Amino acid sequence: MATPPPPAVPDRALPEPATAAGREGLAALLAHPGRAVVALDFDGTLAEITDDPERSRAHPGAVAAIAALAPRVASVAVITGRPAATAVEYGGFAGVSGLEHLVVLGHYGAERWDAATGEVTAAPEHPGVTAVRAELPDFLRETGARPGTWVEDKGRALAVHTRRADDPHAAFDALHTPLAGLAARHGLILEPGRLVLELRPPGMDKGVALAEHLRDTGATAVLYAGDDLGDLPAFAAVDKLRSDGMPGLLVCSGSDEVPEVATRADLTIPGPPAVVALLAALAEATAPTA
Ligand SMILES: O=P(O)(O)OC[C@H]1O[C@H](O[C@H]2O[C@H](CO)[C@@H](O)[C@H](O)[C@H]2O)[C@H](O)[C@@H](O)[C@@H]1O
C-alpha cells in the first residue's frame, strides 16, 4: 500500500456553518466521528472543473486528506456521476494506506467500488443506453447542436457536453428539451449538470445512494459535500434525515455556475482546495489526543 504525502493544505481551521442545523451536524460529527459518514462528490468538489473530463484529477492534497480522515470516521464515500472505476483512477484512490475502507458509488449509485476488494459491483445495464448511443450522433446533427458539443460515452450512460461549444449556455439550453424527449422515448432520464446533459437509467440517484450507505454503516451523523444539480437529491436526503433526527452538514463546493446548491448548503467554501482543507481540518480535529 502506498502512503500518501502529507496534505498540501495551508489552512487547518474548521469553518463555521452559517445555519444552526449545519452547526449541529458538525458538532455531532466532531463529538462521535466513529459514527459519522463523510460523503463527497468528485467533479467540482474533489477535482477542479476542466474543459476536458478526461483530464480531471483529484486535487493534489485530496488523497492524503481523505486518508487522514477515513480511519477516524465510520466511512468516507465518494458519490459521483462518473463510472466508479473512472473516479477511482482520476482520484488516485486505489491501494492507498488509510483508504482501505473507502467506497466509491459511481453512476449516481448504480455502481459500487470497494477499496477492500478493489472490485466494482453494478446494476444490470439498461437497453435504452444502447439505443440512444446509436441514435445520438444523427439526433444531435438534426437538432442543430452547436459546434463543439460532444458526447462522453460512460458505458452505462451518455453525457452530452456543451462546455466546449461556441456558446456553452445557449448550446445547453437548446438541447435540454429535445434530449429530455429522447431520454424518455428510451426509458431513460435526463440528468442536467454543469454544462452537461446526461441520459441515464432511472431508479437511482445520489440521495438514494447516500441513504442506503448511511443505513449500511449505521451512521448517526453525516457530512455531504457537492457542487452540482446531481448532488441535490443527496442534499434532500440529508434534509429528510435531519427532520428525522440525524444531524447533518451540507457543504457546497462553491461555484457561481450552480447557485441552487449554494442556496441549500449550510456551508459554502470556494472549491476543491477548500474542500481538501476542510477534510484535513476534520482529520486534525478528530485525531485522538495523546
Ligand atoms: O457527480 P460528479 O462527480 O460531479 O460528476 C458529474 C459529471 O462530471 C463530469 O462533468 C463535469 O466535469 C467536467 C470536468 O471538469 C466538465 O468538463 C463538465 O462540464 C462537468 O459537467 C463528467 O464528465 C460527467 O460524466 C459526470 O456525470
UniProtKB/TrEMBL annotation:
**Any one Gene Ontology molecular-function term assigned to this protein's record:** trehalose-phosphatase activity
Q: Which InterPro entries match?
A: HAD-like_sf, HAD_sf, OTSB-like, Trehalose_PPase
Q: Which residues cross the membrane?
A: none
Q: In which pathway does it act?
A: Glycan biosynthesis; trehalose biosynthesis
Q: What is its EC number?
A: 3.1.3.12
Q: Which cofactor does it need?
A: Mg(2+)
Q: Which residues form a coiled coil?
A: none
Q: Where is this region: Disordered?
A: 1-20
Q: Name the catalysed reactions.
A: alpha,alpha-trehalose 6-phosphate + H2O = alpha,alpha-trehalose + phosphate
Q: What name does the UniProt record give this protein?
A: Trehalose 6-phosphate phosphatase
The organism is Streptomyces lichenis
